[in-house]
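Discussion board: Methods & Data

I've been asked by a reviewer to show the raw model output for two of the constructs in my manuscript, not just the figures. I'm not sure how much to include, so I'm pasting the format here to get opinions. Each protein appears as its amino acid sequence followed by a line of discrete structure tokens. Is this the kind of thing reviewers expect to see in a supplement, or should I convert it first? Here is construct A:
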Amino acid sequence: MSSWDPKRQPTPRRKESHVHIGLIGLGKMGFNMRERLRNGGVEVTGYDRNPDVTDAASIDELLAAVPTPRLIWVMVPAGDITDAVIKELGEKLDEGDLVIDGGNSRFTEDQKHGELLAAKGIHFADCGVSGGVWGLQNGYGLMAGGDAADIERALPVFDALRPEGDRADSFVHVGGIGAGHYAKMVHNGIEYGLMQAYAEGYQLLASKDIISDLPGTFRAWQKGTVVRSWLLDLLVKALDEDPGLQNIDDYVEDSGEGRWTVEEAIANAIPAPAITAALFARFESREDSSPAMKMVSALRHQFGGHATRPAK
């Protein structure tokens, strides 16, 4: 009996593509995504308020450059900025155009945006994007939510963004509108817990006088152990760059997804003690000095380019 599964087959990169999209937001993520899309054969016209990086002088100019029916990817900060961009697009796009929100919006906002655009005949999908500042080089993990036909239409874009290899290893159509960002929210909640565990281990090792090679200990875990991971690799990189984390303050931001994950756990009576404790540890970092939270701050900088505060 054949074990061939079409979902597991490698999907070749599109070296030549008739796909042309608009990308709104060319910050830390969007700038690199534009380059990866172009490398994957997708034509991109980008817009950003920063004149040094934008391709178009305005959203109107971007929309004029993208052929209809348009595919517009929004990659701006979640909240009021995303809301404003979606509303503007709702006034300017044509029936049959597709908008994808690739930022970190809360899933409940996706449902509002989908309804707003649907009333005008404009399609909407959401996509959780993971990969941080390393996505240009390594590709992005993608979690999409929306109608199956809209996701199918955007597959050349998803394929250009994701890593090489089987599509199922780095891309999933999670479900309807909001499902992609819900999956990304839980992904980031797990990330909180993983970083906190590594950071607490770091503090335990750093506090013990019999440990003479702290960076070497983590380096030795990178191959052959059950705790090996990309986060561990980044932890080792952080220690190579700043062995005692002397240049980093222990203040750690939380960007929203961890809080939302805990709120969802409470709303659905799902025990999530590790993720909840990791979130509370970030709150505690704003009151006290903690080597563990220095490491969390260092890890956030390593994978996402999130700003750190200089040591006091």
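Construct B, same format:
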Amino acid sequence: MFNGKTIFIAGHARLPQGMAAKSVFETLTITAEVDVKYGVILEASCTLATEHGREFIGRVLRGTSLKDGVEDAIQEIQTYYRGKATNALIAALKDLDLHFHQIHDEQKNKVK
């Protein structure tokens, strides 16, 4: 049951040529369930072709506070993910972060 304390956000980026997921998707998508108050990613997934890859990215992103920025998560992706989708993952994460901040700003403006 939805409790209003989390939101579901998606970030998108173009996939590079030669990716297995490119045959199914034109873009890479990262989705995340985010705590509204603290901006912490509670659960995340992406459209990488393998379940292992999707789970790995989920573990990397879990616990990241979007209020603190995504630089640490980007660094972890660059360090630990060694696949063709690195730049797409980073771009999708930045897009997700942008959407979070837009939603957060809208919520703040409603309160005023």
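Answer (T.O., handling editor elsewhere):
This is acceptable in a supplement if you add a one-line summary per construct. For B, something like: DSSP finds three helices and three strands in the chain.
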